[in-house]
Write a structure and sequence with these properties.
The protein is of the alpha/beta class and about 325 residues long. The chain is built from 14 helices and six strands. It starts with 15 loop residues before the first helix and ends with a strand.
Length: about 325
């Protein structure tokens, strides 16, 4: 989950879980929701050729094969893509034909929302101070900001990042629900807590403050990320890992940016090799993870190649 997918800013790289949990929390809250700022323009519509209107022409799909067994690896983006409408039918056909489905972690249990709740006795409003907390209210609405104040900082970070993208059902959840409805074996590559533990050191009030004071840059980064994803441009997505603007704005040492990438992406990617290999050996399957895990340093395809898999980018039926 580019985050997943949202990898142009510190700690948002792996916030797909946090974003999904925030969405669950908001659905459980029966009070009226404030309208967020208008989402970014949808890059799929008018610019798409008539023959492929609304379709993701070059999806981030790979096939890894070893000893006669294959797994499909789909890179997802957490917001801005309608998976059922924009994924080509042949991609969904691969999912439908697979005996098992794997994703980063299980976010279907509403009880995991509690992992976002602060337990340190403080609030985000306390940490940000009145002026910056007002900026958060201006950005996401007063009611939502007040709700986020009692959650851990990465909940606010994911909310700020996702508000810049078109509102869609998360791709990973669409694919998960499709696989579950088909009775497929479900595999999760890591526990929810493990993912959140990797994110939390890099999601602080200082990082939120950096996003609030650089909203124009944040908006441009999100829109470029979505455009690069829509174009299937892996090189452009990989280059995004060099963007340290918000990292530096949060007062972090540029020399330690690599530690962040390794903790939130590289280390997790390496831990996924074993379960993906087991999935292949058990007869194959369909794996959906944030596209950021399929490009850049220590990406999953290259790690599988190092283990003897033959990996190719799939661009058609």
């Amino acid at each position: 989950m580019i985050t997943s997918s949202l990898h142009r800013r510190p700690a948002v790289a792996a916030l797909a879980v946090a974003a999904a949990l925030v969405a669950v929390a908001c659905k459980k809250n029966e009070s009226p929701k404030p309208a967020l700022a208008a989402p970014a323009a949808d890059p799929w519509g008018a610019a798409s050729p008539p023959s492929t209107a609304g379709s993701l022409v070059v999806p981030f799909l790979y096939e890894a094969t070893k000893d006669g067994h294959s797994v499909s690896l789909l890179g997802t983006i957490h917001a801005g893509v309608d998976a059922e409408r924009q994924l080509p039918p042949w991609v969904l056909a691969r999912l439908d034909a697979a005996p098992a489905f794997a994703m980063e972690t299980d976010i279907s249990d509403p009880a995991t929302v509690q992992l976002l709740v602060r337990t340190d006795g403080r609030t985000l409003a306390d940490e940000l101070g009145p002026e910056d907390f007002q900026l958060l209210k201006d950005a996401v609405g007063a009611s939502l900001a007040d709700g986020l104040s009692g959650m851990k900082p990465f909940a606010a970070m994911s909310t700020l990042a996702l508000k810049e993208l078109p509102m869609t059902t998360p791709m990973d959840m669409v694919l998960f629900n499709r696989a579950k409805a088909a009775g497929k074996r479900l595999v999760f590559l890591e526990p929810v807590q493990a993912q959140l533990d990797a994110i939390e050191p890099y999601a602080t009030a200082a990082d939120i403050r950096a996003m609030l004071h650089h909203q124009a840059e944040s908006r441009a980064a999100s829109q470029k990320m979505l455009a690069d994803y829509a174009a299937g441009d892996g090189a452009a997505l990989a280059a995004a890992f060099e963007d340290k603007v918000l990292w530096i704005a949060a007062g972090r040492d540029p020399a330690r940016f690599g530690e962040f990438l390794d903790a939130t992406l590289g280390k997790r990617n390496r831990s996924w090799v074993a379960p993906i290999t087991a999935l292949a050996e058990a007869g194959g399957g369909f794996v959906a993870v944030g596209a950021g895990h399929l490009v850049g340093p220590d990406n999953v395809p290259s790690l599988l190649e190092a283990q003897g898999f033959t990996v190719r980018r799939v661009t058609g039926p």
